[in-house]
Amino acid sequence: MAGIGFRLQKLLKEDTYTGLMKGYLYSAIISSGPMLVSVICIGILGFLSFPVLNTGDYLLFRTTIIYIFSFSIIFTGIFQMITTRYVADRLYMKEPNSLIPCYIALNFITIINQAVIGAIFFYQVDKNWQYVAVSTSLYVIISWLWNTMIFISATKNYNTIVIGFVIGSIMSIAGGHIAGSVYGLIGYLAGFSAGQFVIVVFLMANFIKEFDFFKPIDFNFLHYFIEYPDLFLAGIIINLSVWADKFIFWFSPYGVNIKGLFHTFPIYDSAFFIAYLSIVPALSIFLVRVETSFYKKYRNFYHMVTGKASLYAIESAKDDIVQDLKRSMTILLKIQGSITLVLITCSIKVMQIAKLQWAQLIIFKIGALSAFMLIFFQLMVIIMFYFEFRKEALFLTLLFLATNIIATLITLYLGFSSFGYGFFAAGFVSLFCGYFILDHKLDNLEYLTFSSQPILKIKV
């Protein structure tokens, strides 16, 4: 509920294709920027590295980046929900000068911890100090990037953000290729890291330029760990649940040991990662809908409540929220459903373009369906957080994690032909349960809003 909402509303009010495209481009970068950059850069650098790197070094390069992205997002998930809530509260209380001190404190904690964790971990992979130094640096930079993504939604200047991602991506590819041609694996990692660092610097400069601060550093957001333990747990679990099936396959008998602690299962990983790209349009559209149409209805409902409006007015405002959510979900269902259908129908063509193996065809198809389930599940959890249904959201993330682990273990027992169905089952079960929980909560929203307020004892 920050600067991005106002900016998107302004762009959409232009009522032009240019304004519309700018709005969706901005929301796509806010929601999926790091994921898009990583997949595109890995794909292009992987293609360019064929004449330079041998198979072992290429797999080590690819696996290093995958591990960095997976573990960095899981670790930063410890702070993600807590920090997001703290930022939202500060903006609601009209205290924007609290954001920069919080940002500095968050990154101070992250950089120190991730540097230590990264150095120890990568030393167990390869004792070459150059590899350890470059990989740890990239691990810290990507963690820093995840943290920065929390704060840039509070800014209004989308141009700098888009430019930062474009320039950083070009530098990752060009720098990686140039340095890699000379220094091999270390050069590719260093060049890629340099480009990611440029992205962070652009985003950070844009954020710091827009806000003042009352002191250099502020650790007050840490109190939210005590106040909102369910947010803290949900932040870890929601990211861990998405990667749980990958971890299981990596260290299963089907997994491949790349080097040291690095295990992977390329047949499964690449098919699913490409399928995940299909949800970027839906994430972008949902962000636009939430920050424009839905937010107006959401704000109006609570304005009615705090303004002591009549029960009829409050119920009418609630109905507006429900109808807007239904319209948004219908739009997403049509768009994401069409994308998923096209991917499955044209899966052989996609497989040829992405240079997947025939053995990955079924995994890619079930991955596309799983991504369809995942996007709606995650959006449902976000809506629950808006309405303070935190315990229900935590329950659903736990359900997704447990179902994903159990179902994936079952598919390991059943064999290769069932791979991918574990994640699909987790998405289906969690989405099914989440729908009925959210539907019940929204039906009783006005009652739950009033009944959740504290009762104050007054001495007479």
Output the keywords.
two-stranded antiparallel ribbon; globular; mainly alpha; 2 domains; 460 residues
SSE topology sketch:
Elements: H1 3-13, H2 17-48, H3 55-92, H4 99-125, H5 129-152, H6 158-183, H7 185-210, H8 224-227, H9 229-250, E1 256-259, E2 262-264, H10 266-276, H11 280-306, H12 311-345, H13 347-353, H14 361-386, H15 390-414, H16 421-443, H17 445-451
What proportion of the residues form beta strands (DSSP E)?
Answer: under 5%
Radius of gyration using CA atoms only: 23 Å
Which strand order spans the largest sheet, edge to edge or round the barrel? 1-2
> Which class best fits the helix and strand makeup?
mainly alpha
Secondary structure tally, helices: 17
Polypeptide structure, described:
The chain is mainly alpha-helical. It folds into 2 domains: 225 residues, no CATH class; 173 residues, no CATH class. 81% of the residues lie in helices and 2% in strands. The mean pLDDT is 84. It contains 17 helices and 2 strands. The protein has a two-stranded antiparallel ribbon with strand order 1-2.
Short description:
The protein has 460 residues and is mainly α. It has two domains: 225 residues, no CATH class; 173 residues, no CATH class. It is built from 17 helices and two strands.
